Amino acid sequence: MTDINVNRGTFDEVMVPVFAPASFVPDRGRGSRVWDTEGRDYVDFAGGIAVTALGHGHPELLKVLHEQGDKLWHIGNGYTNEPVLRLAKRLTDLTFADRAFFANSGAEANEAALKLARRYAIDKFGPEKIEIISFTQSFHGRTFFTVSVGGQPKYAEGFGPQPQGIRHLPYNDLAQALDAISDKTCAVIVEPVQGEGGVLPADPAFLKGLREACDKHGALLIFDEVQTGVGRTGTLYAYMQYGVTPDILTTAKALGNGFPIGAMLTTDAIAQHFKVGVHGTTYGGNPLGASIAEKVVELISDPKLLEGVSVRGAAIRAHLERINERFGMFREVRGRGLLIGAELADAYKDRAKDVLNAAAANGVIMLIAGPNVIRFAPSLIMPMADLDEGFARIEKAIEQVAGAAAVAR
């Protein structure tokens, strides 16, 4: 095979322009460090958007990948396989759920959840019970149904008529939610912590109120835990911290630590409303992805690992507080576990991307959540030495952004 030489410029030549990737090209990673094609190292606080919860190149995951890769990658949904059965058993043993459906992404898991909720309501109550309630600034995926349900209109505009029966309400406003949920509501879908919407944790009373209202009106409560799940907030799933159990839960991102896999978890009674042929997937639950995900869940469900999430989260907050004392850059730091958002103060309004770019120039990979929030979603087992080194670099980046802002003023 002839070698094809590529670089960052190749993206602009051959890729559909739905992304604007960084100027450097990551090449390899180990733990919480990434090296680009020029050999430069970066401390990774993004985790592939809350995906690589066990870091890059975890030896136990590599072992499973190689072992299963030597056996069977894919067989199709006319058959089952042992890895997917073990994964389903592990997830149902660890959660409220009795049944699992596997897909390739969080969007597909949410698509399945929303379709199941509609099917359940129509089967039980009739064709009028189809309303789905979601919340402003929510994000549930990029399929047409999920962008319509998501609370960020920019992602759904320009594609023609949207699915009907969807209503968006203010997040954390229980009074409006209680007023809106009715006998026509088939489902309420909510993120326990809004990720893309700015790292906004739900008030416990808000989620409890949604649970009670759904029970009153025969609606299903769906927790989108695509970003908060698999240890990110300090428990295996965030619902466990809130003491509120959903009817359906979706999970992806960290579930495969970078191998594409998503899942919808639900109860036996609800699952029975999906019959053979009603929904499906070609790749979902393939043995290669399922074997990796099972090992991920085994490792992350370890109480000692989950305790470490809180330790690292506290360390990040302490660094942010120290930096803020020096620069006054943040209005608020919020989140749960290792999903943390730092909202910029008015003096730095709309400068989150500037911080991200300055961080990259200083050897740090970071995230934003809108124009005013810097987001941290690193490996749950990030070495403390890397965390401290990363913040030394971040402080230099923030010093540069603060200096530029002062000159501009």
Automatic annotation (TrEMBL):
GO annotation terms (biological process): L-arginine biosynthetic process
PROSITE patterns from the UniProt entry: AA_TRANSFER_CLASS_3 (PS00600)
Keywords carried by this UniProt record: Amino-acid biosynthesis, Aminotransferase, Arginine biosynthesis, Cytoplasm, Pyridoxal phosphate, Transferase
Binding locations of pyridoxal 5'-phosphate: G106, A107, F139, D224, E225, V226, Q227, T282
Enzyme nomenclature, EC number: 2.6.1.11
Enzyme class: transferase
Catalytic activity: N(2)-acetyl-L-ornithine + 2-oxoglutarate = N-acetyl-L-glutamate 5-semialdehyde + L-glutamate
Binding residue positions for N(2)-acetyl-L-ornithine: R142, T281
Molecular function terms from GO: diaminobutyrate-2-oxoglutarate transaminase activity; identical protein binding; N2-acetyl-L-ornithine:2-oxoglutarate 5-aminotransferase activity; pyridoxal phosphate binding
Signal peptide extent: none
Keyword Cytoplasm assigned: yes
Locations listed in the record: Cytoplasm
Pathway: Amino-acid biosynthesis; L-arginine biosynthesis; N(2)-acetyl-L-ornithine from L-glutamate: step 4/4; Amine and polyamine biosynthesis; ectoine biosynthesis; L-ectoine from L-aspartate 4-semialdehyde: step 1/3
Cellular component GO terms held in the UniProt record: cytoplasm
Record Gene3D superfamilies: Aspartate Aminotransferase, domain 1, Type I PLP-dependent aspartate aminotransferase-like (Major domain)
Co-factor: note: Binds 1 pyridoxal phosphate per subunit.
Pfam families: Aminotran_3
Modified residues (N6-(pyridoxal phosphate)lysine): K253
Cofactor field: pyridoxal 5'-phosphate
Complex formation: Homodimer.
PANTHER family documented for this protein: AMINOTRANSFERASE CLASS III, SUCCINYLORNITHINE TRANSAMINASE
Note: May also have succinyldiaminopimelate aminotransferase activity, thus carrying out the corresponding step in lysine biosynthesis.
Family under the similarity heading: Belongs to the class-III pyridoxal-phosphate-dependent aminotransferase family. ArgD subfamily.
Protein name: Acetylornithine aminotransferase
Gene: argD
